[in-house]
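lol forgot to send this yesterday, sorry. struct tokens for the thing we talked abt
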């Protein structure tokens, strides 16, 4: 027996389950104790109505068969209520007459824990169960009205908004709001007259929101749904002499065929993978040779589009030179397996590329829609500029492909280290690949160094070293990796750190100056 005459088992046996009508006496006992200054428990009529209208939303934790904590909820079409609702309005005076199975929001009606169990973090378990319910029902968000019981001590010295800000900053402890904030809920609006009987809160409450990042707006289809796992094939390409363009394309088709045979969604080639063709030219200089090489780009792209169709795989074409209107650019093509294609220019040009070839940087940055997810492409040097990947991530990019060409290990390590940083800070996957071997008679591209790899964010759900796969250095090979896209969504809301969410946008921002070029 405890001091209140309640028998508490010496050995706990906790179980999460849905509430049932026979639990009413346990519920009444807890609510009468917790809400003694707010009228106590629901009536049995109200409790019965809650179970009848939305049984899946009423959950509890029992200990040896006795309810120790409970959470009640309702599904609503939140647009019908907006942020100016009262507690009685949105709960149908406790009868949940507002329940709408076709609604978009899980609304938290109540959550309470028996005083004898309030040091066991049962409230956190119930919040986690609510989040799981929200995800499984494919609802957009959870919204709760957070009481401010501690406000009674500060009502004469500060406004509710000031109080909430101080609680957020951990300068003041509030037994309700502090708990909700620690469970990843974000303040949405301060509600007046939310619960007039709540004298401690002076009738105020904070509407808090938890977004379901796994929410899918479209209805599930039997075929053609977006995938939750993306399989990538990464070609670490051997530079070798070729007799002509057909000879080069036979090598390309070999790898596309191989990767397609493993039902991959993407195959990626290195930057300037077609450089072996330059050995065939009787060019006076490296700048002349790369401009002749550009003459092949359109045909290679068209052949890659046909290979993407034939082998049912999206191809990231590495990169190739483009020479139009006496301007030389470096461009990567996304050749989709539906027959369409788009391109991404290299934006930053190295001093050597400028001095030897006269390359120019492009002016557009794209996020590409694919049948799997949104992707981005940054060519080699571009990945060393973190602003680009951040802009792509803000457009919901999930996989960043980085085709590169590096001649020495220190050059390679610049690309690798920066690519790993981009994966962590933008909570995305990053796939890098380059070429190996030697190219006699090709000025400025005669030696190569590469170790292709697939990087992840660094958190518990991912490999301990944040590397899914990596190639043997300087060996021609293909890497395969399955990228779980759902892990990225979970990381955004439940990660040990949340780099994108926790940015101080009140202090700084990253923006694209030229209009209408990011899509």
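and heres what i got for the seq, position by position
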């Amino acid at each position: 027996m405890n001091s209140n005459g309640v028998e508490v088992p010496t050995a706990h046996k906790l179980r999460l389950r849905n509430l049932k009508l026979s639990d009413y006496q346990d519920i009444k006992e807890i609510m009468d104790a917790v809400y003694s200054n707010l009228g106590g428990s629901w009536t049995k009529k109200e409790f019965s109505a809650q179970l009848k209208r939305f049984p899946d939303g009423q959950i509890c934790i029992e200990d040896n068969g006795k309810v120790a904590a409970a959470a009640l909820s309702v599904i609503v079409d939140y647009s019908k209520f907006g942020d100016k609702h009262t507690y009685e309005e949105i709960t149908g005076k406790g009868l949940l007459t507002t329940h709408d199975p076709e609604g978009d929001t899980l609304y938290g009606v109540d959550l309470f824990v028996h005083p004898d169990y309030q040091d066991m973090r049962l409230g956190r378990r119930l919040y986690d169960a609510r989040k799981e319910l929200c995800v499984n029902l494919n609802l957009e968000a959870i919204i709760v009205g957070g009481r401010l019981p501690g406000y009674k001590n500060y009502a004469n010295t500060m406004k509710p908004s000031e109080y909430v800000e101080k609680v957020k900053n951990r300068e003041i402890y509030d037994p309700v709001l502090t708990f909700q904030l620690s469970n990843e809920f974000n303040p949405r609006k301060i509600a007046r007259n939310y619960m007039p009987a709540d004298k401690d809160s002076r009738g105020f409450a904070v509407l808090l929101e938890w977004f379901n990042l796994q929410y899918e707006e479209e209805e599930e289809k039997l075929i053609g749904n977006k995938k939750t796992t993306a399989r990538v094939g990464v070609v670490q390409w051997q530079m070798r002499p070729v007799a002509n363009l057909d000879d080069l394309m036979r090598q390309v088709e070999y790898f596309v065929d191989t990767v397609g045979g493993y039902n991959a969604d993407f195959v990626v080639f290195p930057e300037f993978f077609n450089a072996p063709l330059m050995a065939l030219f009787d060019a006076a200089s490296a700048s002349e040779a790369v401009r002749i090489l550009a003459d092949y780009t359109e045909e290679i792209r068209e052949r890659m589009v046909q290979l993407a169709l034939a082998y049912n795989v999206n191809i990231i074409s590495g990169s190739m030179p483009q020479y139009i209107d006496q301007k030389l650019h470096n461009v990567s093509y996304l050749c989709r397996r539906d027959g369409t294609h788009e391109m991404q220019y290299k934006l930053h040009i190295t001093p050597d590329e400028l001095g030897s070839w006269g390359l120019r940087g492009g002016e557009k940055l794209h996020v590409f829609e694919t049948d799997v997810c949104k992707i981005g492409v940054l060519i080699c040097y571009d990945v060393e500029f973190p602003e680009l990947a951040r802009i792509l991530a803000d457009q919901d990019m999930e996989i960043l492909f980085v085709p590169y060409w590096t001649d020495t290990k220190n050059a390679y390590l610049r690309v690798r280290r920066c690519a790993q940083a981009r994966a962590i800070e933008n909570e995305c996957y990053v796939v890098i690949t380059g070429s190996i071997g030697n190219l006699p008679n090709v000025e400025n591209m005669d030696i190569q160094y590469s170790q292709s790899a697939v990087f992840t964010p660094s958190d518990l759900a991912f490999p301990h070293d944040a590397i899914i796969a990596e190639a043997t250095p300087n060996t021609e090979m293909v890497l395969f990796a399955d990228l779980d896209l759902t892990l990225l969504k979970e990381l955004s809301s439940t990660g040990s750190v949340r780099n994108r969410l926790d940015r101080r946008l009140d202090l700084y921002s990253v923006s694209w100056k030229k209009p209408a070029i990011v899509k």
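The mean pLDDT is 91. anyway ping me if u want another try
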